[in-house]
Amino acid sequence: MNDTIQQKVGKRIQEIRIQKNLSQQDLASKCNFEKSNMSRLEKGNVNATLSTLEKVCNALQIDFTELFKF
């Protein structure tokens, strides 16, 4: 089964977070999110808003386009 766009973006967030040696908790804190929300985002269980994705990009110090390189 093909992953949804939410799952693909979630996997990219997780990949980049791991590359930057950040825990899920660290990234959640930088974004002002609960860890559980970050977990759901990485699993692709939520349809993130653009403003949510912008916060994640800022916290990871990446360009928005990086989330869509799958």
Could you say what the CATH topology is called?
434 Repressor (Amino-terminal Domain)
Which architecture does the CATH hierarchy give at level 2? Orthogonal Bundle
How many strands, which pairing sense, and closed or not: the largest β-sheet?
none
* The named CATH superfamily: lambda repressor-like DNA-binding domains
Beta-strand fraction estimate: under 5%
Average of per-residue pLDDT values: 96
Explain how this protein is built:
- The protein has 70 residues and is mostly helical.
- It has one domain: 434 Repressor (Amino-terminal Domain) (Orthogonal Bundle).
- The protein has helices at residues 5-19, 24-31, 35-43, 50-60.
- Helix 1 packs across helix 3, helix 2 (24-31) packs across helix 3 (35-43) and helix 2 (24-31) packs across helix 4 (50-60).
- The model has no long low-confidence stretch (mean pLDDT 96).
- GO terms for molecular function: DNA binding; DNA-binding transcription factor activity.
- This is XRE family transcriptional regulator.
- It comes from Flavobacterium crocinum.
Short description:
By secondary structure, the protein is mainly α.
For this entry, give a set of tags.
single chain; 70 residues; mainly alpha; 434 Repressor (Amino-terminal Domain); 4 helices
List the helices and strands and how they pair.
Blueprint: H1 5-19, H2 24-31, H3 35-43, H4 50-60
Helix pairs in contact: 1-3, 2-3, 2-4
